[in-house]
Amino acid sequence: MQVWSAQFISFVAFASGQISSYPLAVIRTQQQAQAFSSNSHPVSGVLSGLTGMYEWNGFRGYYNGMGASFVRAIPCALIN
């Protein structure tokens, strides 16, 4: 296997993992920030967080900030 194909396979695995798990990271961040803000939407669990995120921001709300996360994480994934 050539080096470029191994890096491509590594990138595809990384990208699919990021895309599938990023909404959970958004919910986790929202729950952590909720303790410091009085104007946030109350979220008591993952399922209510996912449904609430869809109600407030639509499908795009699940992936807010993902571009910056990719720019930061892609070089790290290619090095490893």
Structure, explained:
The chain is an all-alpha fold and 80 residues long. The chain has one domain. 72% of the residues lie in helices and 0% in strands. The radius of gyration is 16 Å and the shape is elongated.
N-end to C-end Cα span: 17 Å
Give the number of domains: 1
Q: What integer is the average pLDDT?
A: 81
Radius of gyration (CA) equals 16 Å
Q: What structural class is derived from the secondary structure elements?
A: mainly alpha
Query: How many distinct helices?
Result: 3
Poorly predicted spans:
none
Number of extended strands: 0
| SSE string | HHH
Kindly state the percentage of residues in helix: over 70%
Largest sheet: none
Taken from the alpha-carbon principal axes, the silhouette is elongated
Tell me the fraction of residues in β-strands, as a range.
under 5%
InterPro entries: MCP_dom_sf, MCP_transmembrane
Subcellular location: Membrane
Membrane topology: Multi-pass membrane protein
Pfam family, one: Mito_carr
Outline of the structure:
This protein has helices spanning 3-34, 46-57, 66-79.
Question: Which key features would you list for this structure?
Answer:
mainly alpha, 3 helices, about 80 residues
List the helices and strands and how they pair.
Blueprint: H1 3-34, H2 46-57, H3 66-79
Helix pairs in contact: 1-2, 1-3
